[in-house]
Every structure is written in C-alpha cells, then in structure tokens.
Amino acid sequence: MTPLPTVSEVHIHFTRGCRHLMFDALDVDKFDVDKLGGVPFMEANDISLRPSKHEIRIASDPPIL
C-alpha cells in the first residue's frame, strides 16, 4: 500500500548481455517522475552505484561507465 496517487503497476524484463533484470514499478500521477522504481529494483537485481566514478555494477559484472 502506498499513499502516492498510483495509476497502475508496471512489470518489465530487461536483458543486458546474459543478465535478465526484472523491473517492478508504480505508475504514479502528479509526481516528479512517471515511473517509480528505485531501491527495490536495485536490491532484486544486485545493482550498485558509484556516483563519484560514474559507475553502475550489476552483481559481480565489470562496471558500466
């Protein structure tokens, strides 16, 4: 349950190389963004960010710059 004005749910599969990523989000109304994902997506797919290095890492794969 969320207090956000939710329009619908979004469930999408992405593939990067041999990695399959599942993205579950809320389609929200009157918010800064149309789709709200974030930390649950990162946790489910073992994604980490290094903002100072401009890197994204998926599991133990080499960083994406």
TrEMBL record:
In Swiss-Prot or TrEMBL terms, this protein is called: Uncharacterized protein
The organism that produces this protein has a lineage beginning with: Eukaryota, Metazoa, Spiralia, Lophotrochozoa, Mollusca
